[in-house]
Amino acid sequence: MERLSLHDNPSHAQQRSSPPQQQQQNALGPASQGPTSGPPQLPPQMFTTAAQLLDLTDKKLVLVLRDGRKLIGVLRSWDQFGMNRMAGSRSAYTDHRNFSAANLVLQDTTERIYAGKLYADISRGIFLVRGENVLLLGEVDLDREDEIPTTVTKAPFEEVFALTKQEDARRKTGDKKRYTELQAMGFEPEHSGEILF
């Protein structure tokens, strides 16, 4: 598995086939051997578009959803739902959010929940995720997948689920108290704090 950053050049095969001028454009800083045309370009590994999803197909991913759920599964299929589903309808032209997200289909999906220093896994099977609900998406390193950090311990699902509900209730009461205090000072909270990381 390649570990690339912004400063890495594309693979050697791409370097050999591209002219020397284009090799210099892959760095974010100014070119070291003469002027280049246009602004500096990001390397291909930094794009999060449909092309990147194509690269992640059939790989094991971890997804964090907007409601705080964490899913681990193999990306089997995806589509850009706004393009085909709403083609020709009036709302397709007015709601631009539909064009920026993709539905994701995960196979062998496991939902992982955390409570304090405990975690539990529950099998979910095939899982369809609407793209606008994805907060974070990343590839699982298969070489390190089985290495569980020593800071967390696996526990039965029922125990961790009950602890999670207690933590959520405590957080909601604390948020409600804080929002009341903020409103007394003239502030209006934007969100209810439902998004968890």
Automatic annotation (TrEMBL):
Keyword Cytoplasm: yes
Annotated Low complexity bias: 11-33
Keyword terms of this UniProt record: Cytoplasm, mRNA processing, Ribonucleoprotein, RNA-binding
SUPFAM superfamilies, per database record: Sm-like ribonucleoproteins (SSF50182)
Domain Sm positions: 51-139
Keyword Magnesium tagged: no
Subcellular location as annotated: Cytoplasm; Cytoplasm, P-body
InterPro entries cross-referenced by the UniProt entry: Lsm1, LSM_dom_sf, PTHR15588, Sm_dom_euk/arc
GO molecular function: mRNA binding
Biased segments, Basic and acidic residues type: 1-10
Region Disordered, annotated ranges: 1-45
Listed GO CC annotations: Lsm1-7-Pat1 complex; P-body; ribonucleoprotein complex
Coiled-coil ranges from the UniProt annotation: none
Protein purpose: Component of the cytoplasmic LSM1-LSM7 complex which is involved in mRNA degradation.
Subunit and partners: Component of the heptameric LSM1-LSM7 complex that forms a seven-membered ring structure with a donut shape.
Family recorded in the similarity comment: Belongs to the snRNP Sm proteins family.
Protein name as annotated: U6 snRNA-associated Sm-like protein LSm1
Organism this protein belongs to: Penicillium capsulatum
Gene: LSM1
